[in-house]
Structure formats: C-alpha cells, structure tokens
Amino acid sequence: MSNIDKTEFGSFLYELRKGKGLTQKELAEKLLVSSKAISKWETGANMPDVSLLIPLADILDVTVTELLQCKKSIQQELNTEDVETLVKQAITLKETETQTNRSTKRKRILFFIICLLISIAETVLMFLVDDNSLQLYLFLPLIIASFVFSSYFTFIVRDHLPAYYDENHINFYSDGFFRMNMPGIHFNNSNWPHISNYLRIWSCILLLLTPVLVFLFNMVIPIEFSGYLISFLLLGTLLIPAYLIGKKYE
How far is residue 200's CA from residue 159's CA, in Å, rounded to a whole number? Predict the structure, then answer.
C-alpha cells in the first residue's frame, strides 16, 4: 500500500497554517488538541488522527484529497488510479493508528502484570517476615484497593472523552465507580489523554509500592497514624500531578 510521507505532509501543513496566519496554538485550539501535537505533525514525527482530517482540511480551506496528496490540486476530477491511491493512503494511515493503539495496550497490560506479580510477591514476603502480621491484615483493604484501581485504569478507563466535554466547560468526570472533580480544570480531549495516562502509571506504581509502604510504615509508625499518612501520601501523588497535567494541556 502507498504510504503518506510524514515529512512532506508536515511541510505542506506548515505552509497551509502560515498561509492562514494561524499559530500552532490557534490551530490546536480549533482542533481541540495540544500545540505539541501540531508541532509533531509539522515536523513529521507524527500524523493526525484520521477523524481530524476533515476538520483540519476545513480550517485550512483545502480538501481532504489535497491534504493526503500534500499539494493543492488544480484538477477538478481525479482519475480512478488517483482515487485508489488516496483510499489506500487513508487505509494505511488508519491501520498504522490501529497497530499503534494495539501496541500501546499490550505495553500497558504487560506493565500491569509485572507490577501485579511483584506486588503479590511483596505481600507474601511481608506476611512471612513480620511477626506482627495481625496488624498488617488491617492494611489488606488498601492493598486490594490498589489492585482494583490499577485494573480499572489499565483495562477500563477510556482514552478519549465524549464530544460534549469539548463543547462545554466540564470539571467533573464520571465513569462507573470512578469519580473525579477538579475545580479550575476543564476536561477535554486535549488534556484527558495525558491525565488518563498518568492515572494508569500512578495506579500501577501504587500497586507495586503499597505493600512496601505498608510494611515500612508498620515498622516505624503506630498503626493508628500510619493508615492516615499512607492515604494522604497516595492522594497527594494523585491529585496534585493530575491537576498540573490537566492545566498544562487544557
């Protein structure tokens, strides 16, 4: 199949954007993506999602055909061979995106499995080593909760939000049992992929570190205080970075 030259596409996109007098930030705001995404397209490091081709073409006053051909066409009609080439290019672009998504999901699942196995080993070792294991049993709900959150963020949480998040200023996310309300942050498809990715990494590291933290805190801090301290530490590492990430890519 024919492939779209990313460098050529990026140069053409750059010329079109400059011709319209738009900055990368202004174009990004119109497409509801980050300015870094525009920069990656123009440098040839990445390609826009197939779903963005039509709005991108509309903003730049070209056709999708011209975008895929990386040049403005003076012909009003395309012959059969040209049409077939363009269709193949679009299919190739979509297949590349699908393969990338599958590869990303496999990496996420592998990372989760590794963290889970290590966490199980740490938990078993913790109960074998500590003489006061009855106190450790009180922390089992925290360990189980870390497993539930990491499973949810790895397998269930969505990568993209419904369109109404982009159309309205919404600072509340709800999906299943998970709720997130962040005043001052408007969730949209510019910042949510970054937030959800951090939540996945955070939850898997939480799964990995919770048994170790429980064991260490149980040894040095009275049990009536250690639970509060661990919860405060975990929530701090979740909310503050998530807020900063959401604000940065909003």
Answer: 11
Query: According to CATH, where is 1.10.260.40 located in the chain?
Result: 6-77
Q: Token pair 């590794």 is at which residue?
A: 114
Domain 6-77 has CATH 1.10.260.40: yes
The pLDDT averaged over each successive group of 10 residues in the chain (250 residues) is 70 90 88 82 81 86 83 58 55 54 81 91 79 62 83 84 74 78 84 88 87 74 65 78 86
Q: In whole angstroms, give the CA distance from residue 30 to residue 101.
A: 24
Q: How many CB atoms lie within 10 A of CB 43?
A: 13
Cβ distance 90 to 54 under 8 Å?
no
In 142-192, DSSP assigns E strands to 172-175, 178-181
Under DSSP, is residue 181 helix (H, G, I), strand (E, B) or coil? Answer: strand
- Stated pTM of the model: 0.57
